[in-house]
Amino acid sequence: MKLSVTLFSGLMLCLLEVKSQTVIPIETKQNAIVLQADTKTNVKMVYYGPKLASQSDYANILNSYKQGSDYTGVNDEAYTTSGTRNLFEPAITVTHADGNNSLDLHYVSHSVKKESDNVSITSIVLKDPVYNLETTLYYKVYYNENVVEQWSEIKNNEKGNVTLHKFASANLYLRGGSFFLTQYHGDWAKEMQPEESKITHGIKTLDSKLGTRANLFQPSVFMVSMNKPATENEGTVLYGTLAYSGNFRTDLELDHLDNLRIISGINNYASAYTLKPNEVFTTPAFLTTLSSTGKGTASRNLQSWARNYRLLDGKGTRLTLLNNWEATYFDFDENKLFGLIKDTKKLGVDMFLLDDGWFANKYPRNGDVAGLGDWDENKKKLPNGIASLVKEAKNNDVKFGIWIEPEMVNPKSELYEKHPDWVVKEAKREEFYFRNQLVLDLTNSKVQDFVFGVVDDLFTKNPELAYIKWDCNAVIYNAHSATLKNQSHFYIDYVRGLYKVLERIRKKYPTVPMMLCSGGGGRVDYGALQYFTEFWPSDNTDPLERIFMQWEYSYFYPAISSSNHVTDWGKQPIKFRTDVAMMGKMGFDIVVGHLAPNDLAFCQDAIKTYNEVKPVIWQGDQYRLSNPRENSVASMLYLTEDKKTGIVFNYLVNNRYGEASKLPIRFNGLDAAKKYKISEINVYPGTKSSIDNTKTYTGDFLMKIGFNPDINQSRTSVVLKIEAQ
Question: What would the pLDDT profile of 665-678 be if each residue is shown by its tens digit?
């Protein structure tokens, strides 16, 4: 390829003389994305599938597909434009400085940068030959994990402002006979409800316009199965999600050739973005992983990537805790909390967590109607401040953590009275509340300083503070900033402001554990989880409900990131509740003093057991053995990488007469040649396990025939440990 550049009337014209097509293979250990610049320098996505043995074969892929009429090939562009030849949904739409709405991006160059033996970035530079607008596509490959991050950079080299109307992170083009979408919906206490459907012609859009709790009703994660619905161990399936904590949009368009285009990025709803000369707009990363051996492989790919590269301290440890919320709600004082701190030590967990209600004086935080935003300790409840609680925790040899919701404000607060211009609201419209509160305007640098200061002041006054529970309970109504000059930038600049605050916190406090909390699963995404060690799946802690929720979350997020608490929700015994909480990062939110002696003894023993096996749960490969939506028994296996140790959780989820583990449950992932011993752990005091721990079984037997955990109406929860001999 020969590239010559000519300047004419101040406009850069790129004249490309192409002698042959340019093939750009982007390979992981098992898969390949193949892009190709044709003889007219159009960059197309010609393949996403299993890696071929020889890279030279990729050049023949496009010729293998029968094309329709002349215009159909434009649909497979790697980053589809609008206003020129494209007839389908665009990835990018702009208005140039002169008012023209057309864009046509052509190949200029590409390069590969190797960051490590496992990570590399392919960048592809595209330019419009008429308008001086440049777009660079990035593909970051995590080779062993088979995960690809995609994002784009849009640079305005024109002399005037360019308006971006759509600015996707990724543009995939998949060829196949048929496609099946698994998407999720939810609400408070009803998170991660799955729906699977065949993708029909036209556009299916998954999106959110909530501003803050973007995943409350429509999580950004999804799956696409090719040719037939994938199962746990069979079928080709692609997982996708946008690593972004604000409004997102994913378009899935099945075209007239029965091929699927997936375009994902920031939701352009009410967000036309003005790009100044020489300014660069960088989109968030869109994540994909592809499996040709079912959902299980895809989820293990994504979980491994998250632990190794995205989740804060993903290979580290976590603190077990006792939370006071369900024990006291807003009704507590120093003496009552001192008693709960002693209960924390008695229970055997690592930390006491003080939840909502500890702050505000003029408008005391005695309910969710007042005080939010006034982060001074309530003098009536805590006359000696947080410091006395930190000291008491230390005296009891446990750590101390605290709840905050620094992005929000109650109208009944001193903060609202002093700084009404700091609040997201329309001055001429009636205020509309979500949980009796409004959102602070994080597009404002003064508000960013304030939110950072809430966290910084807590640590400055209490250096031994060990944990932050960061809540987020409101969505954005009447979206308007009192200080932002361009209101169409609001939703984007809000998230940028949030990330600036979190980056400042992590720069000063890089290792402090923080839980990303939001009822409705509203803040769970991989953009936020680079700053947090864990997330709160749901305020619904009924253990039976949690089995289903945690099952669906596990397709996309590792167990170490999921905060699971034992509470009084549900009618199941304490063993069942504790076993379910052990399937992630365990905590307790109960009144320890109300536990029966045997229940307390069980919890104390279970915590000791958990501390022994948690490395397997947190870092092991996860195998879903029996789906609770399809069977009366739910079964989940966590297995170490060397396949020597596993923990299997089994639950009766259908309590109708005669429903039990009638058939053996087939294991997965074991070494077929190894012999394994199986024993029951977490046995309730005074009961005897029915599992014979003297027998051994080959991995081959356990995977082909299986093992019966003896689940029944009197044994509704059974935790097994498998050990290679």
Answer: 999 999 999 999 99
